[in-house]
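input
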Amino acid sequence: MSLNEEVEVLRRVPLFARVEPAKLKLLAFTSERLVFPAGSELFRQGDAGDAAYVLLDGEADILVDTPEGEIVVAQARRHAFVGEIAILIDIPRTATIRARTDLTALVVTKETFLEMATEFPDVAIEIMRELAQRLDRTTADLREARAQLAAG
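output
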């Protein structure tokens, strides 16, 4: 995949959709592309957050540890951006990401991601917007789950 193709994929990631192509080119150039075979882990719940991942191709399961074992809480597909929470707020990984299929990802280091957010205010605004939307979806899911539990 060429640098220009990686920029086009980045443009399809909601977090980067409104970012100028020149800035995306810089992001693609400074990031590493890795291939993960089906069943391999991009990272594990509890690990330190050193990078985020843009899924260029393939699918992944998002799993969390519970007393009864791992459960799949969501899936990530092409153009998803995963792992950013741990690099934004310096907490251990909140979930495990495991390749469901063969997967290709662009690895964005913590330093690169934070540098982009610092140097380019539009990137920081998009980060806040995307995270606020995720929080809204999570809150709605939690409300629905609580209503189902209350209904019996």
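quick obs: Residues 121-151 form the longest helix (31 residues).
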